Amino acid sequence: MTKHTFIFIWIALAGLIYYLADGIQNPNKIKNLGESSIVVLKRGLDGHYRSEALINGQKVNVLVDTGATGVAISQSVADKLKLKSIDAIRTRTASGDSIGYMVRLNSVKVGGVEAKNVSAMIAPSLDGDVLLGMSFLGRMDVRLYKGEMTIKQVD
User: Fold this and answer.
1) What is the mean pLDDT of each run of 10 residues along the chain (155 residues)?
2) Which of 155, 79, 78, 82 is nearest to 122 (CA)?
3) In the chain, beta strands by DSSP E
4) Residue 141: how many CA atoms within 13 Å on its side-chain side?
5) pTM over the 0.90 mark
């Protein structure tokens, strides 16, 4: 076996491990969610519900957070979505006081569950991508049972 073959095998093995680990940690990919008006999210190994979603038609990663008042978007995602803020506001989070920027999202869609004209906030200090909070979830019937979150369209 040549050195290049050995390196190729290791790279392929590392890619396969990454692919499998990502599928276990983040099982809620857009392609798996379908288009039904009821979506079922599986809880990740860390106990959180993460998913791929569409915001204004663009794919983003979200952390579903029933304890968050609204949808909070990191600055990098806001730039990707080309969001323009309406107004600056002072916010209080678990990490302390900060400034956020109010925006309106044309649509937020998880699987086939969609809400239009959703209020959100650009949170420059947010480390993740998007927190999907109650300004979206409050329009839905949300249930937690045995490691699954069921989100049902109600409007």
Assistant:
1) 79 75 72 91 90 96 92 94 88 77 96 96 87 96 94 88
2) 78
3) 38-42, 49-55, 58-64, 71-73, 87-93, 96-110, 113-122, 130-132, 140-145, 148-153
4) 6
5) no
